[in-house]
Write a structure and sequence with these properties.
Length: 248
C-alpha cells in the first residue's frame, strides 16, 4: 500500500554528496521493494520526531547514526536520502531493538533497518558487499558443513583482536576432541558432524528461500564454490541411497 500525502518529499538528498547520481527509476525500484514487504507497514506507523529512539540507541552514541533519521527518511519517502543511508548508516545498527521498545508510535527502526539491509543485499549494493565480505569464511563453513565455526578456526591469526587469551586455545585439539564421548564431536574441522542428508536438506532450504540467490548477488565466487560442494554432496547422497536400496 503506497503512502501518499504532503509528508512525501521529492528529490531531497544530500546536497554535498560526491556520489554519482542514481536514476529516479532505480530509487523508486529500491523503495518499492522496501514498501512491498509485509513487515513495512507493521514497523512504520508514523513519527513525532521526538528523538526518544535516538536518545536510547547505543549505536547513536558511537557512530554517525540516528534511528529517528531512518524513520523520517522512510516516512517522508525521501528516496535519495534512503539510498544514501543504505550506503553506510544502516550498517551501524546493532539490532538491539531498544528503539522499538521505546517508540510512542510503535515504530521499529531496527526492523526497518533490517528491511533496508535485505534490500541492499538484493540490489547488490557495494555497502552490503563490503560489510559481508569478512564473513565469507564463516558463510562457507556454515553452508558447506552446517557449522558456523570449528575448533581449527580459532587461531591467533584468525582472531588477532582477541588478545593474549587466544594463546590459551593453542592445544592438541585432535587428541582432546577424541576424548569427547559423543562421536559427532570427534572432529576439529567442524564443531560437530552433520548428517549428509541433513546437510543436503539445509542447502535445499537456503536454495528455495532465496538465500543462495542473494549470496550470488553479493559474492559470486563464494556462491560458485558452495554450489560445487553441494552438487558433490547431492551426488554422494544419491549414491548412498542407491547402496541402501541394493542392500534391501
Amino acid at each position: 500500500m503506497a503512502h501518499a500525502g504532503t509528508r512525501v518529499q521529492e528529490h531531497i538528498g544530500d546536497p554535498v554528496s560526491d556520489r554519482p547520481p542514481v536514476s529516479r527509476a532505480k530509487l523508486e525500484e529500491i523503495f518499492d521493494d522496501l514498501q512491498s514487504d509485509l513487515r513495512y507497514d507493521h514497523e512504520l506507523n508514523g513519527c513525532l520526531n521526538c528523538g526518544i529512539c535516538t536518545a536510547t540507541c547505543p549505536a547513536a552514541h558511537y557512530y554517525d547514526f540516528s534511528p529517528r533519521e531512518i524513520v523520517q527518511l522512510l516516512w517522508t519517502e525521501n528516496l535519495e536520502g534512503i539510498y544514501d543511508a543504505m550506503q553506510e548508516k544502516i550498517w551501524a545498527c546493532a539490532q538491539c531493538y531498544t528503539c522499538a521498545a521505546r517508540c510512542p508510535f510503535g515504530n521499529s527502526p531496527g526492523g526497518l533497518i533490517m528491511l533496508m539491509r535485505e534490500t541492499a543485499i538484493k540490489h547488490g549494493m557495494e555497502s552490503a558487499k563490503n560489510v559481508l565480505r569478512p564473513f565469507s569464511r564463516v558463510m562457507l563453513k556454515l553452508v558447506s558443513t552446517g557449522n558456523q565455526l570449528s575448533p581449527d578456526m580459532i587461531t591467533k591469526d584468525a582472531f588477532p583482536d582477541w588478545g593474549p587469551n587466544v594463546a590459551k586455545v593453542d592445544a592438541p585439539l585432535k587428541i582432546l576432541r577424541k576424548a569427547i564421548p559423543m562421536p559427532t564431536l570427534n572432529t576439529t574441522a567442524t564443531a560437530w558432524e552433520v548428517n549428509l542428508k541433513t546437510s543436503v536438506e539445509l542447502y535445499t532450504i537456503w536454495e528455495e528461500t532465496g538465500v543462495l540467490q542473494q549470496l550470488e548477488t553479493i559474492d559470486e565466487n563464494l556462491f560458485d564454490v558452495i554450489s560445487d560442494i553441494m552438487d558433490e554432496k547431492r551426488e554422494e547422497l544419491k549414491d548412498w541411497q542407491a547402496e541402501q536400496e541394493e542392500e534391501e
